[in-house]
Amino acid sequence: MKIAWICSALDLRYRFGCTPNWWQFMKGLHERGHDIIAIPYIGEAFETPWWRCYRNPCATEGAIFYQLKQRWVKGATSTQRGVSGWGVRFVIEHWVRRKWQAHLARVLEREKDVDAVIIATVPMNHLTGIPTFLRQQFSVPVVYWDGDVPASLPRFGGFASGFRIYDGADLSEYDALICNSEGGALDLKDMGARAVYTIHWGFDPELYAPLTVDQDRDVYFYGFGAEYREDWIRAMLVEPSKQMPDHVFVAGGRNFLSDMGRVHLEGDVPFNVFRRACCRSRINLNITRSPHASVLASSTGRVFELAFMGCCIVSNPHAGIERWLTPGESVIVVHSTDEALETYRHLLKDESTRRCLGEAARRTALERHTHVHRAEEIVACLEKIRQGN
Predict the structure, then answer these.
(1) Which of 92, 193, 261, 365 lies 20 to 30 Å from 357 when distance is taken between CA atoms?
(2) Backbone angles phi, psi at 372, to 5 degrees
(3) The domain 217-368: what is its CATH number?
(4) Alpha-carbon distances of 38 from 3, 48, 58, 99, 333, rounded to whole Å
C-alpha cells in the first residue's frame, strides 16, 4: 500500500505524546513493505529510512499556533484565550485550510496511486471540508486517527491546553475513524462517524529493549502533567515518598503538583535516555489519567513501553488493562496508598519477583503488541475501508 500520513508532528522536540507512536507505526508499515509518505502539521518535514515526506505548507502558521497553545497551557486569562481562539479560527478558516487543501491535492496528483490518506491527531475542525474534497477529486479513502481518546472527547472537555478538536467538525466526512479506545469508539459512532476501528498502541521491541544498568532508585514515574490524575499521583507517589523516607522516589517530566513530597523531580527526559531512566528504576509506575482509566480499554503508550523494557510495573486501576497485561502476573494494580505502600515494600525486598514481573510483561508485549502487529492491524483496517466494509 501507498499511504499518505498527515500527522501532528514528526519532530520529537514538540513533545507531543503521540509523535513517538506515529514513528513506531510508520516504521512497522515500512517493515511490512508499505510506502509511507509523511507530512507534519506542526514543524518541519524530514525523511528517515522508514518514510519519505512532503513539506509542511504552513510551517510558520503552525509554529505560531503552537506558541499560542503554550500560552493557554500556562494560564492565560479567559479574555486572552477568547481573543487568541478567535484569531486562530480566522487564520485557519481563511488561510491555513486553503493552503493545506491545495498542498494535499498537489501531493496526490504527483503520487497518482495513493491507496489511503490517514490524518493522525491533527485537530479535526482545522481540516473541515478537506476529506470530502480529496474523496471527490481522487477517489481515495480518508481516515482520521485520534490517539487521545477518550480525553479528547467532548464529554471530557478536552485538555486544559484549550484543544477542542471536534467543535464544529463533521465526523461523517471521513470514511472511518481509528482510535485507541474500545469504549471511546462508541462515542465516536454516536457523534456521527461512519465506522470506527480500535487499534491500541504498539512499539518496536529493539528500540524499547531491557537495558542492563545499576538500579539506583526505587520508584519512578514519567509523564507530562498531573491533569486528570492528581489523586493517583498523590496516592502512588507523593504520600509513599513521605512514608518511605529511606527510599528514592523520582518523577521525570513536568507540570506536576505543587507539593510533591520527597519525590525528586528530574525534569524533562529526552527520548534517547528514556530507556535508561526506566531501567535504572526498581519499580516503574503507570499512572493513567482518569478518562483513559475509566473508559473501557483505552490504551496509553506508557504501559506498553514499560512492558517492552522488561520493567516491574505498578499501575493504578485501569478498566481493560487485562486486554494487554495480566494483573498479578505481568503488572501489579493497586487501589490505594496503603496498597501501594505494601506493594512497594514487598517488591523492593524481592528482586526475583520484580524480575519475573518484568519478564512476563515483555514476553506478552513481544507476543501481541509490537509495532509490526499494529502495522498488520492498520493494513487490515484500510483494506476493509477500501472495500466499503
Answers:
(1) 261
(2) -75, -40
(3) 3.40.50.2000
(4) 8, 10, 15, 17, 38
What is the C-alpha separation between 72 and 161, in angstroms, rounded?
A: 6
Question: Rounded to whole angstroms, how far apart are CA atoms 159 and 150?
Answer: 11
Instruction: Calculate the average pLDDT of the chain.
Output: 92
Confirm whether 2-202+371-386 and 217-368 share one CATH topology.
yes
Residue indicated by cell numbers 496503603:
338
Classify domain 2-202+371-386 at the CATH superfamily level: Glycogen Phosphorylase B; (3.40.50.2000)
Grid coordinates given for 332: 501489579
Region at 261 (left for phi over 0; alpha for psi -120 to 50; beta for the rest): left
CA dist 182 and 219 (Å) reads 30
Q: How far is CA 347 from CA 5, 221, 262, 370, in A?
A: 43, 16, 20, 27
Q: How far apart are CA 147 and CA 108, in angstroms?
A: 25
More confident of the two residues 96 and 94: 96
Counting every residue written for the chain, the total comes to: 389
Q: Domain coordinates of the chain in residue numbers?
A: 2-202+371-386, 217-368
d(CA 38, CA 7): 7
Query: What does the pLDDT look like over 232-254, one tens digit per residue?
Result: 999 999 999 999 999 999 999 99
Residue 168 C-alpha cell reads as: 464544529
